[in-house]
Structures are given as C-alpha cells and as structure tokens.
Amino acid sequence: MKGIDLLRITIAFGLLLVLHYTLRPLLAWRSSPDFLVIALLLVSIRVRPGSAAVVGFITGLIADSISIDGLGAGALAMSVVAFGASWLKAVFFADNLPLIAFFIFLGKWALDIMYHAASGNLGGGELAMQLLVWSPLAAAVTALFGLIVLALLRPILRTSPA
Amino acid sequence: MASRVSGRRDTLLLSACVALSIVTLVLPQTVRDPIAAAMRRSVVAPLLSLQYNAELTRRAWEARERTRAERDSVVLAAMTAPELERENGRLRRMLGLGRRLRWGFVPAEALFSRSPGEEYTVVLSAGSRAGVRPFSPVVAPEGLVGMVKMVDPTMSIAIVWPHPDFRVSAQSADGSAFGIVAAHLGDEPDRYLLEMRGVPLRTSLTPGTLIVSSGLGGVYPRGIPIGVVQRELRTSEVWANTYLLRPAVLPADVSTVMILHPQRAGAGVNGVWELANPDSLAADSTRRADSVARARADTARPRPARPAAARVDTVRPRAPAPARADTGRRDTVRRQAPVRRDTAPARRDTAPVRRDTARRDTVARDTAAPVVPVTPAPPAPRPDTVRRDTTPPSP
To answer: Does ipTM top 0.90?
Structure first.
C-alpha cells in the first residue's frame, strides 16, 4: 500500500471512529449502525490478513475498554472478522454495492455472534433473541449505513494508480 | 516462497491476536479493570469525551422536545380555560336560578337544531316523565328563552324567541307600558332582535328600559326578563308604537335551561329575577346566582345558637304543594303545625309582623289562584291555638 493510500484509509478510519462515538449516541436506536465494523472492513480489504487481525484486535480492545464487562471479547471477534474479511477480499473485491452490503451484513452479524459467545453476558432466550433478531437488524442497519458511507467517502477511498 | 512466508506470518499474527484476546478474557477482574481504566484515561479518552458530549446533546434535544411539548400543552390548556370558565359561570348561574326558583322546574340540556327551517327550535333533554307539558316556559338565568311546543316522554321540543311564532305579553319593568313581544323578522343581524308591538302612544319607552313578561295570557309568569329597549321602530301603525328590543338571552349562549312546571308558572316568579336596574341585569344575575359564593358565605357566617323553642318559623313548607280542593287554604300548614304556646311570644319578639299580613304578601293574587276555588272554613276554636288578643276577657 502506498503512503497516500495509507493516509486516505487512515482518514476514513478516523472519520468512522468519530462517527461511531458521536452519531451513534445521538441516534440511540435499539439497533444502531456499527461504524467500527464498517471501518474495520474498509481497512481489512486493503491490507494483508495479519495486519487486518492486528487492526481488529486494537479496535476491539478500544471498544471493550468502554464496556463494563467482556474485555477481550470484542478484540477476539474483531480480529477474526478482520482476518476473514481480508482473506476473502478477493471474493468481495468487486465494486458491487449489494455484494458489499451483504459483506458488511455478514461481518457485523458474525462479530455479534462471536462477541456474545465470548463475553457470555447473555444467556438462554435473551441470547437467542439478541442473535436472531436484534443482531440481524443491527447488521442490516450497519450495511445500509455502510453503503451510504462508501458513497460519501468514495473520493477518499479511491486507490491511486500503480 | 514469499507468499508462503507472508501467509505464515498472517497466521501467526492472527494466532497472537486470538491468544492475547483469550488471555485478556480469562484475566481476573482485578487485573482487567485497571487495564480498561488505563485505556479509558489515555487512548480512549478523546473518544469517551466525544461519546459523552453526544449523549449530552441528545439529552438536551430530548429535554427541549419535552419542554416544547409541555409548553404546547400549557398553551392548549390556556386556550380552553376561558371557555371552561364561561361554562362554569353559566352552570353556577343555573344553580343560582334553581335556588331562587326552589321548586317546580326541570333542568334540561338544550340542543340547537342546525337543519334549515329548524334554526329557532331547540331539543330539550327532559320530557313528560319529568313533568314537562306543552306551553311550559323555558327560562335561563338571564331571562326568557322560549316555550315548549312538543313533548315526548324523554325529550321535548321548544321554540326560542327568534321563532316567528313566538309571542309573549310584555310590560316595562315599572308597569307603565304594555305590549306584545315577538321576533323581529328583519334581515341579518337584526334578525336576532325582538320587537315590542302595540305599545300605546301615550306611553313612551326610553332606550335601556327593561321589558319583562306581564303574566297575561297564562303561559309565562310575570316578571321574566325579555329584553331591553334599544330604539323605537317606524311602522305604519298609527295608534301604537313599536320598539326594538335587545334580547336578554342570546341563543348561542343557551346550553342549559330550566323548564317551569305549569304549577310553578302559575305560582309566579316574583323575586327570582332582579328587575330594578336593567343595565346591571347581567351582572346582578351573575352575583345573585353565584350559588357557590353564597354557599361559602353561608357556611362561613357564624350562626347564633337558637333555642329549640324559637324554631317556629321553620315549620313553613319547603315548597308550596299544588293546589288541592280539600287543602287549598294557605294557612293550613301553619295552623296544623305543633307550635307550643310558650314559644309563640319568642317568635313575635324576633319578627314583629302580623301573621295574616305576612301570608298575604308572599303570594301574588293574580298568579296563585287555586285551580278549584275553595271557601275557607271557619277555624274551630281550639284552646291551645287561640290568639291572646282575640280571647274574650274572663268575667
């Protein structure tokens, strides 16, 4: 990755990080968009899987430090999701909006499943409700917002010619 | 070779991240909390500040919306308050009218018809089961409203004064002029005025003169306010004057009325409406009708402890009974009251009025005529009820 591309992706990542901690509390929806997942997937498809895993680990630790319990659960889930996204980037590399939206949807849902499985903060029917109802809803909202963000950040995210 | 090395490195990095995450997960709480706190105070601090400010913004927005909703509610309540106040005042005046009438009336809701041709009729929520009869007068605290035309068991239909068929025999409050009051069939807005016809030429009515029902004709009792003279009307009549009246009751304000029973109409309504000053009629009606204030004043006023022997005057009937052929004498109740002789002087001390004159003044002769004339029988001399001044001196 060139330096200019690294700068662009860093700016986009920073913007999404700020959105996650400003717009999300403002919306206060039951199924809010997860801008961290969008940022992580944007980075993951542009770096090697190992680097993506490290970025996911750091991002997960940041997210976990704010939550009361489950420090490490988010890091674990984001590491795996980022690594998988980077590994599968060839599949999803096509500039196809529905495919990208589905990619974000799957990434967010998988992240939630791993996070709740690792943290163990929910159980029984509550966990099923969360994973089968609220998580897909949040994943769908995240996918929608991901498309909007990609459309807005397209000038920044365009890779420079080799 | 290079791709294999990089692939191994990626796997190692993933394994390291996963291992570190699992280690972080299984760390005891006492170790994890300081780590999270250190992150919150350093790397995550700007993000936490952003989140905190966003939360504050959202709460401020919600508080603003809540305040605006509350303000709207207050404004709405303030808009409806005058209407409620008016309705409350009207109901209180109705209570006051009922208190002054005391008996022989039926309160009813008045529903105005909006269909063409029925603008001047009103449906009343009381019918023959409540004692309403055709030609029963319909009144309001301000004065005369109209007359019942048709009666059903549970409802009745009345014409109000703008109706073309409405007529009432009227007089000025001081009794100097008589005439017939009917609706003024002019164009809008004069349509909602009255006119008093047939006033003799020799009498002149000045603007502001209060016109009341005269009691002639047997439908409306004497003394119900009808309206106030506005001006004289130019007509083709030569030997009589016609005057334009401003009605005492506005149909738009009529929502609750009183229907007078025929017996009550026959007994008269003297003293129910104040007829002294027509300009202050409305204000006086409000003041006198304020039953709540009156009740409050009655409650607050200290009542002197009266001995049981002085309760003679409470023997009076609460409501005059309908005239019956066998009990038509007005003093029947007083004479039959179990008055002890030793209490009579006490009553005379407090009220030095002759009993026979007081009885005569309480009922107007022209309105209290019994249905069947009865010749009063001479009272039998009873030793315990014979007045002292009529007892012959002992030899």
So the answer is: no
